[in-house]
């Protein structure tokens, strides 16, 4: 097995200068790099002084017990009571040292990376052979090694700090695409982001001349909070490039040949991992055409597990592979691992609790996770008048900033517009610890903002 590292990517990304313009847009949710919506984006500032303008009620009209006194003054520059362990100040990935100050700059309005996200960089769960994500990664490697005589080169410690160019431009994401917004992506500065997909490495690896490669890594998206969404998760990207003599004589054109090969490869992978029903769905990605999603039938529902397609010719042309055709896929490791190991929630992947970690061992794919005592949730409702500057992702970011991994879900439960046209939203926040019962008092205390 060959594992390569990129020492230059990170340094290059970090050296990019800070400009004073901030791309401003807001969207409800990151929606899989689909085409931009026609509605114009709402302007907002991530580190604006008061992201949550007005508190509507202290929950008297809702069923929550003790709401946040105010989120209005919860800004990331204010210290407040936290029950999280301190964040390590330095990470090392693929030989590159990343200091906290390189990534989190609270006074910089072009930066929206919070502490709790920095603490996840460098943990590299996918590189732990006893972790469900590492076990799954290795099982996928086995499939590719066996099917392609170990031709796929594997990268699993490329730095997650990449340039906007790598993350978006080089894979043809349109400049007005919603995924570029500060609402959806973590920006280190205007030119540098935490990669939101492993496709960010496609172009540079093509330029380096690779024709078969797999890239596994942690990816970062500002997102809502529930059992299948976490702002940090893991993806594996696969790319295969064909030279003209590979499809000539096949009787089909290059793109059809690549699409057929791609589907054959991924159906084989799905069969290697589980015995389930599957289906292909046509979709859109800016970097592939045609594009598909593979869905598997799980717990009486169709669940999307990967996106893929035939690489846009422009990407190949720009990166020194003019006469070639290629396919690419990106799969979400947590989703597959949840199915394979019967893990009901995305949060335990980050657990250091022995009762979780001891259940998995190297090479053992599909061991069924046994739920250890699940402590009861503690619910709190919060309501406030909404405005253009508030999005669900911003709210989730604030909640996560205060309560860290104790937040299990943030859910909109009520929506009310008064005669003057002012709208209020009520969110129910579920807090739950894997280690202990949370008390109402401790959550209330967390919610009290110091200057009130
Ligand atoms: N990058 C896409 C995503 O994150 C997945 C993908 C990769 C789709 C490669 C097509 C080709 O959703």
UniProtKB/TrEMBL annotation:
Catalytic activity as recorded in UniProt: tRNA(Phe) + L-phenylalanine + ATP = L-phenylalanyl-tRNA(Phe) + AMP + diphosphate + H(+)
Keywords in alphabetical order: Aminoacyl-tRNA synthetase, ATP-binding, Ligase, Mitochondrion, Nucleotide-binding, Protein biosynthesis, Transit peptide
Top-level division of the source organism's lineage: Eukaryota
UniProt keyword Cytoplasm present: no
EC numbers for this chain: 6.1.1.20
An example molecular function term from Gene Ontology annotations: tRNA binding
Entry-linked Pfam families: FDX-ACB (PF03147), tRNA-synt_2d (PF01409)
Residue stretches making up the FDX-ACB domain: 373-452
Any one GO BP annotation for this protein: phenylalanyl-tRNA aminoacylation
SMART domains: FDX-ACB
Domain Aminoacyl-transfer RNA synthetases class-II family profile, chain residue ranges per copy: 217-348
Biased composition (Low complexity): 33-43
Name of the protein in its database record: phenylalanine--tRNA ligase
């Amino acid at each position: 097995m060959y594992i390569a590292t990129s020492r230059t990517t990170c340094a290059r990304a970090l050296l990019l200068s800070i400009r004073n313009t901030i791309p401003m847009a807001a969207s409800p949710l990151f929606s899989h790099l689909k085409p931009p919506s026609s509605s114009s984006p709402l302007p907002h500032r991530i580190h604006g002084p008061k992201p949550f303008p007005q508190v509507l009620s202290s929950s008297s009209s809702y069923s929550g017990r003790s709401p946040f006194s105010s989120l209005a003054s919860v800004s990331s520059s204010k210290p407040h009571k936290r029950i999280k362990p301190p964040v390590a100040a330095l990470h090392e990935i693929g030989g590159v040292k990343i200091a906290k100050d390189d990534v989190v700059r609270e006074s910089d309005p072009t930066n929206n990376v919070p502490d709790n996200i920095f603490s996840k960089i460098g943990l590299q769960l996918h590189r732990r052979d006893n972790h469900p994500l590492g076990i799954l990664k290795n099982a996928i490697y086995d499939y590719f090694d066996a099917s392609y005589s170990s031709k796929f080169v594997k990268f699993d410690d490329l730095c997650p700090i990449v340039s906007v160019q790598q993350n978006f431009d080089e894979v043809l994401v349109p400049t007005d695409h919603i995924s570029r917004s500060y609402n959806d992506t973590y920006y280190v500065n205007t030119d540098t982001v935490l990669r939101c997909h492993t496709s960010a490495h496609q172009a540079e690896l093509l330029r380096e001349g690779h024709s078969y490669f797999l890239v596994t890594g942690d990816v970062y998206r500002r997102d809502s909070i529930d059992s299948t969404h976490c702002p940090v998760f893991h993806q594996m990207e696969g790319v295969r490039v064909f030279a003209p003599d590979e499809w000539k004589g096949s009787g089909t054109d290059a793109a059809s040949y690549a699409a057929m090969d791609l589907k054959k490869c991924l159906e084989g992978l799905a069969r290697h991992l589980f015995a389930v029903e599957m289906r292909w769905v046509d979709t859109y990605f800016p970097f592939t055409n045609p594009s598909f999603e593979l869905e598997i039938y799980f717990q009486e529902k169709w669940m999307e597990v990967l996106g893929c397609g035939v690489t846009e010719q422009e990407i190949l042309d720009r990166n020194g592979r003019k006469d070639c055709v290629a396919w690419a896929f990106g799969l979400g490791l947590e989703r597959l691992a949840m199915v394979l190991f019967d893990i009901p929630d995305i949060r335990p992947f980050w657990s250091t609790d022995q009762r979780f970690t001891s259940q998995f061992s190297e090479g053992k794919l599909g061991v069924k996770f046994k739920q250890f005592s699940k402590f009861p949730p503690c619910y709190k409702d919060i309501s406030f008048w909404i405005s253009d500057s508030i999005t669900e992702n911003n709210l989730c970011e604030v909640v996560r900033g205060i309560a860290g991994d104790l937040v299990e879900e943030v859910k909109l439960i009520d929506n009310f517009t008064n005669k003057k046209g002012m709208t209020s939203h009520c969110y129910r926040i579920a807090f739950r610890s894997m280690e202990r019962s949370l008390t109402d008092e401790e959550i209330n205390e967390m919610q009290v903002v110091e200057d009130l």
